[in-house]
Amino acid sequence: MLTTYYHPHISGLTLYFQRLAEEYVKLGHDVTILCAQHDKSLKSTEVIMGVKVIRTPYLVKINKGMVLPKIIFDAWKPLRKADVLHNNLPSIEALPVVILAKLLRVPVVTTYVCDITLPRFFGSKLIDKIIDINHHLVLKLSDTIASFTIDFAKHSRVLKNYYKRTLEVLPIVELDKKNILKIDELEKSPHPRIGMATRIAADKGIDYMINALPNIWKKFPTAQLFLVGTINAVGEERYLEKLQPLFDKYKDKIHLLGQVSPDSMPYYFKNIDVLVVASTNSTEAFGMVQVEAMLEGTPVVATDLPGVRVPIHTTGMGEIAKIADSEDLANRIINVLNKKKVYPKDALAKFKKQNVIKTNLKMYNDLLENH
Questions:
Q1: Does some domain include residue 7?
Q2: Into how many domains does the chain fold?
Q3: Are residues 285 and 162 in the same domain?
């Protein structure tokens, strides 16, 4: 399995592959993860929850991407033993590994999670184009292509060219409830509590959420915003600088909780009144945190992005807001807070872990039977 980032890095892209790999190990499969050594202090090889992790050192970082010249050598041995190579795109290092897999006659599955749109800087559009070409080549060489939703596949800048041969395979979404930890700052705060579970990044629309707050306060003066996720995200320094004056202005109403323990997330989702996914472009293609919140009975307001709107359309647990529109976002949040609706327990049946794993394994078995 090939992915740019892996544990301890936290993002939807990373958690998707981590959960999948660990579930395969529980079922008795041998799983090797090839990824970047994004932090030089991380071990080059280790076993995490039964998953063998091989980290390749990077030569240079380009925003969140990395150049990994050694990846082809690190991939040689595990690929020779592999039944299947599963890629997690976006990943600029996937192409040479896929070519090697084809030479070794190893079937290739590629899950295309999202498009890449870098923050604007000199040369960023050219880099976006190069990444798109890279991904086109990977998809052309792939035996099976998967996406979290066909809705996203039809509208993706890249994947729309392949959507007719794309399978809809949902990610595993679950919360560990063995040792739930409280979040004191959340527990002591008044309602309504608005949540965002995301790293601070330009494509996440945090500025639109903050600018929606004054309209929300007209109806709910005690409303508070609780942000959970990485504050100093890689490649997002300029965006954090842009947000800082807003954080300072509303410091009594906005709570930056940072990266909290996974044991605290069930408490977080259960004790907010609404979760907001305010993403502004197709680097967000699903938003697993939506389903995590829904599993705790918490409704969601999400922007009208392909793929991102699917959980709400499927379950009815929330409202869809216009993209990059603070006024509409505020209105949708107010609507949800006013309703206080109780949702049916079977609304999330489609997202049950057992069903998702079964679909993934069927995808592999069908590929191997026809390869």
A1: no
A2: 2
A3: no
- 174 Cβ partners below 8 Å, 6+ apart? 19, 292, 295, 353
Is position 177 within any domain?
no
| Structure tokens, 299 | 């409704």
pLDDT digits (tens, 9 = 90+) for 253-298: 999 999 888 899 999 999 999 999 999 988 888 999 999 999 899 9
- List strand residue ranges (DSSP E) for 273-336, in order: 274-277, 300-303, 318-321
Q: Let me know whether 189 and 336 are in one domain.
A: yes
Q: What is the pLDDT of residue 267?
A: 94
Backbone angles phi, psi at 29, to 5 degrees: -90, 150
Read off the tokens for 89: 């795109």
What's the rounded Cα separation, in Å, for the pair 125 and 143? 29
Pick the closest to residue 303 from 284, 278, 327, 276 (CA basis).
278
Rg of the chain on CA atoms, in Å: 20
DSSP state of 252: T
Q: What does the angle CA 364 – CA 366 – CA 368 come to, to the nearest 5 degrees?
A: 70
Q: What is the mean pLDDT of the chain?
A: 92
**67 forms bridges with which residues in the sheet?**
60
CA atoms within 13 A on the CB side of 99: 10
Asked if residue 310 is part of any domain, the answer here is yes
Range of the domain at 272: 184-340
Global pTM reads 0.85
Q: What's the token pair of residue 154?
A: 């039809």
Tokens of 271: 């004790």
* Short-list 212, 121, 115, 192, CA closest to 159: 115
Per DSSP (E only), the strands in 60-215 are 60-62, 65-67, 85-89, 108-112, 144-147, 166-168, 193-197
| Helical segments of 142-222, H only | 150-155, 184-187, 206-219
**Could you say which DSSP state residue 278 is in?**
-
Contact 350, 356 (CB under 8 A): no
Domain CATH code at residue 103: 3.40.50.2000
Distance CA 35, CA 55 (A): 5
Helices (H) and strands (E) in the chain, counts: 13, 15
